[in-house]
Structure formats: C-alpha cells, structure tokens
Automatic annotation (TrEMBL):
Pfam family, one: Glrx-like
Name of the protein: Glutaredoxin 2
InterPro entries noted in UniProt: Glutaredoxin-like, Thioredoxin-like_sf
Length: 79
C-alpha cells in the first residue's frame, strides 16, 4: 500500500478537489498515492461513507472532506 490513499466514491463533488490536492502533496513529498472507491468495499463504505473523501496516511485516517496540505506534508516528513 502506498503511504497515501484517498477514499472516494462516484458523484462526490469534494473528491475532485481532494484528488488534486493529494496529487500536489504527493509530488512535493515524492511519495506514491492511490485512490479507492468505497462503493467497491462494503466495510470501507460502512466506516467512511459519510465523510468522503478521506485521506489515509500509512493506513490511518489523516483527515476527511478536505486535504490539509501543509499538515499532511508535515506529517509525511515526520514519518
């Protein structure tokens, strides 16, 4: 699993902005990231479905609805 993962779903208006922000952060930090649609996983949909998009850092929830770019960069560099 990449250090960063973005949990999204179809028809999520916040997901496009989060995707762009996460792309900027990953490029700056030089890390890989991926995106997972929670509609394809019942457990993920149950846990995160009401707060999408969700950013996971090293498998743990880092934030939801928006990407706090400065905080995420700081936490990536600290880890």
């Amino acid at each position: 699993m990449p250090r960063l993962r973005l949990l999204t779903t179809k028809h999520c208006h916040l997901c496009a902005a989060a995707r762009e922000a996460l792309g900027r952060v990953a490029a700056t930090a030089g890390v890989d990231w991926d995106e997972v649609d929670v509609a394809d996983d019942v457990a993920l949909a149950r846990e995160y479905g009401d707060r999408l998009p969700v950013v996971l850092l090293d498998g743990r929830e880092h934030g939801y609805w928006t990407v706090e770019e400065a905080r995420l960069l700081r936490d990536l560099n600290a880890g």
